[in-house]
Design a protein that fits this description.
With about 450 residues, the chain is of the alpha+beta class. The chain is built from 13 helices and 17 strands.
Length: about 450
């Protein structure tokens, strides 16, 4: 699924890059002309050699961005002239090729499709954002090329491709992601969003959070990529920024799609959709499914109301290898993220805390040999009567809560209550860790004090 403009608006994007937070209107053609083209760098090589250069934007003179520049010829050589064997993927920006720089660094080279959905504006935003932002869960920009009408971006190479490649349309011989890996990917992606929302000033709204934009390294460590649609968030007493609606169908928050009013909670909704993809193995939009199941959120929402149906939401390819309580808790977090009302969604920091708790409760299938979470033979009479028993909880332990057998709904284990419980558990876990550290420091001080007194006596 590519990016789409929902309204035919000619609203100019606003890029705020100054400390006083004044709005700066970008004019793409003039700004592109201010980029070091790579050819200019080649002319200066005989004097200064290969080096990193500054990317200065005319409209933001106070911002100097370090970015390595490449000539088109250099990148053509690195990718073996963009031959098919170097091709590794394609997105809204254009085609992506695997390349090898003279330094020996393996890179991914993204070439702008001049007839595609993105253009000079997105190219500038991506260079700007990835040059200024730095976090382990954001993909690193190695450099760019602005030779003539060529626009190319050079990134660190992520050998395992995108999360989408590991969730959907898997070939028969490819192993699906296990439960623990899925939770680790979700936690890392959430931390990337947390950095954008809470650690940058003003906040950055990603605006295109989806499984194909989450890249994985050789250890399945996730990094967010493709920042061409990123937008600086509201400042001061503003509650939102109004902008042309851009994004990917199935991931856009409803209030943003309808009004163009963008907030960080729009990203939280998109995260909830991706988290549901991780849990269910389903696509955000899948037209091959029957009516009523094609939209992931619309299909999942009714199932949230009955905990006895939660197991139906788990990816069948997991083959029951997941903690039942962990599934309940993960679905509770996803449910909160995809609330219709933006104000009802949790801040991304709370989401990070909740999912980090799930990661710490790693599932070990060897502790319950031969048990399947969806096997009716493992369910006892209490569940058939409308109650969840301890035996149904697999390796994850029991929540200890009972069902209302008449109404078929939970008494005290709603998604909101479960999310609160996760936060309490995490706070308790932190308190225990702090107590342990305090105890260790105290023992160390006493030990040192004892050594000093012995040395004083010997002296």
């Amino acid at each position: 699924m590519g990016c789409f403009p929902c309204f035919d608006s000619r609203e100019e994007e606003i890029l705020n890059t100054q400390k006083d937070r004044k709005e700066v209107h970008q004019t793409p053609p003039s700004n592109i002309s201010r980029l070091s083209s790579g050819a200019d760098r080649l002319k200066a090589r005989s004097i200064s050699g290969s080096k990193r250069e500054s990317l200065g934007l005319k409209d933001a003179p106070a911002v100097q961005i370090a970015a390595q520049t490449f000539t088109f010829r250099e990148l053509a050589t690195a990718t073996n002239n963009f031959r098919p064997e170097s091709f590794i993927g394609e997105g809204g920006f254009g085609r992506v090729y695997k390349g090898l720089l003279p330094s020996g660094q393996v890179v991914a080279v993204k070439q702008l499709d001049r007839n595609g959905l993105q253009g000079n504006r997105e190219f500038l935003v991506e260079v700007l954002m990835l040059s200024l932002l730095n976090h382990p869960n954001l993909v690193k920009l190695v450099g760019y090329c602005a030779d003539g009408d060529q626009r190319l971006l050079v990134y660190e190479f992520m050998p395992l491709g995108s999360l989408e490649d590991h969730l959907h349309d898997l070939p028969p011989d490819k192993e699906p992601l296990d439960w623990n890996t899925r939770m680790k990917i979700a936690a890392g992606a959430a931390k990337g969003l947390e950095y954008l929302h809470d650690k940058t000033n003003p906040p950055v709204i990603y605006r295109d959070f989806k499984s194909s934009n989450i890249l994985l390294d050789e250890s399945y460590f996730p990094k967010l990529s493709d920042f061409g649609l990123a937008k600086l968030g509201p400042t001061g007493d503003k509650s939102h920024v109004s902008t042309r609606v851009m994004g990917t169908y199935g991931y856009c928050a409803p209030e943003y799609a309808m009004t163009g009013q963008l907030t960080v909670k729009s990203d939280v909704y998109s995260f909830g959709v991706v988290f549901l993809e991780l849990i269910t193995g389903r696509k955000a939009i899948d037209s091959s499914l029957p009516q009523g199941q094609q939209n992931l959120v619309a299909w999942a929402r009714p199932l949230f109301n009955d905990r006895r149906k939660f197991a139906k939401l788990a990816d069948p390819r997991l083959q029951g290898q997941f903690p039942m309580r962990g599934l309940y808790q993960a679905l509770s977090v996803a449910s909160m993220c995809i609330q219709e009302q933006a104000a009802a969604r949790p801040p991304i920091g709370d989401v990070v805390n909740a999912i980090s708790f799930l990661v710490n409760q790693a599932y070990d299938p060897s502790t319950v040999p031969g048990q399947r979470a969806d096997n009716d033979d493992t369910k006892n009479k209490d569940e058939r009567d409308g109650r969840i028993s301890r035996n149904d909880d697999g390796a994850g332990g029991s929540s200890g809560r009972k069902w209302d057998s008449e109404g078929g709904s939970e008494r005290d284990d709603s998604p909101r209550e479960t999310t609160k419980m996760l936060k309490r558990d995490l706070d308790r876990q932190r308190a225990v860790a702090e107590a342990k550290m305090w105890g260790e420091n105290l023992r160390e001080k006493r030990r040192q004090s004892g050594e000093d007194s012995v040395n004083g006596t010997n002296g």
